[in-house]
UniProtKB/TrEMBL annotation:
<dbReference type="InterPro" id="IPR000163">
    <property type="entry name" value="Prohibitin"/>
</dbReference>
<keyword id="KW-0472">Membrane</keyword>
<feature type="transmembrane region" description="Helical">
    <location>
        <begin position="7"/>
        <end position="23"/>
    </location>
</feature>
<feature type="domain" description="Band 7">
    <location>
        <begin position="24"/>
        <end position="189"/>
    </location>
</feature>
<dbReference type="Pfam" id="PF01145">
    <property type="entry name" value="Band_7"/>
</dbReference>
<dbReference type="GO" id="GO:0016020">
    <property type="term" value="C:membrane"/>
</dbReference>
<dbReference type="InterPro" id="IPR001107">
    <property type="entry name" value="Band_7"/>
</dbReference>
<keyword id="KW-0812">Transmembrane</keyword>
<protein>
    <submittedName>
        <fullName>Prohibitin family protein</fullName>
    </submittedName>
</protein>
<dbReference type="InterPro" id="IPR036013">
    <property type="entry name" value="Band_7/SPFH_dom_sf"/>
</dbReference>
<keyword id="KW-1133">Transmembrane helix</keyword>
Length: 271
């Protein structure tokens, strides 16, 4: 009985060591994540093999796994940049990005886990300063927001794609101008709108006047043609036709053909 504890202790130690070994040798990668393997005795960061994907993995206890989120992420940035005429513009932007999955080992080895603050954000700020500096505050406020958004995206992507970062989109969410500049631009835009409205009304009135003139000229020409075609003979013929139509009326009357003025029929009634 005294030997049992002596025999059981080594077994207990083996069991504990086995549990520790297994716990140190396994890792579970979650959804939307990937792992970079670091071999302590095998050359450090593994860059020539795909990263560890989602699920359960067995890893030697002396090695390490650094887990990265590889799904699309969003980072926000507020910047103060200068327009083409030197005025300070506040820009509120965000970027959609994710690490280059196939090159995750290189990203960890060369840029580190803090790659967003170290690489992505400085590049966005640099691109924003470069792009906004090409435009006036008026252009930034009105018609060029989509253009500068596209240009910031293209300039940022050109740099970060060589830094093992996949840039999906850059969004310019807000452009804030100095209050005095904003008010001046709004007044100018309002005046331009009123000018366009006035020009539209003026053009409409001119077209209506032209239409009425053409209509009047057409009626005048038609009257001239009609007057030229109404000879005495035609007028007499029309008079006879009209008199004969009246004669068909049920009212009592006497029609004397050729007895009226200019030889037109004469209608005699009982009044």
């Amino acid at each position: 009985m005294e030997k049992l504890p002596k025999i059981g202790l080594p077994i207990l130690i083996i069991i504990v060591l086995t549990i520790v070994f297994i716990s140190k040798s396994t890792i579970t990668i979650g959804s939307g994540e990937a792992g970079v393997l670091y071999k302590t005795f095998g050359g450090g960061v593994v860059t020539d093999e795909p990263p560890l994907g989602e699920g359960f993995h067995l890893v030697a206890p002396w090695n390490k796994v650094i887990v990265y989120e590889v799904r699309q992420q969003e980072v926000f940035e507020k910047m103060q940049v200068l327009s083409s005429n030197g005025l300070e513009i506040k820009l509120d932007a965000s970027a959609w990005f994710q690490p280059d999955y196939a090159k995750l080992g290189l990203l960890h080895q060369q840029k580190g886990e803090n790659y967003v603050a170290r690489i992505l954000l400085p590049t966005i700020r640099s691109a924003a300063r470069s792009v906004v500096g090409r435009y006036t505050p008026e252009q930034l406020y009105s018609s060029k927001r989509d253009v500068i958004q596209k240009e910031i995206y293209e300039e940022t992507k050109k740099i970060v794609e060589d830094q093992f970062i996949q840039l999906n989109e850059v969004l310019v969410r807000d452009v804030t101008l100095p209050p005095t500049i904003k008010e001046a631009i709004e007044r100018k835009l309002k005046q331009e709108q009123e000018s366009l409205e006035y020009e539209f009304k003026l053009t409409k009135a001119q077209k209506e006047a032209e239409r009425q003139k053409i209509d009047a000229e057409g009626k005048a020409i038609a009257n001239q043609i009609l007057s030229a075609s109404l000879t005495d003979k035609i007028l007499k013929e029309k008079g006879i036709e009209a008199t004969l139509e009246l004669a068909k009326s049920p009212n009592a009357k006497v029609v004397v053909v050729g007895s009226g003025k200019d030889g037109l029929p004469l209608i005699l009634g009982n009044q």
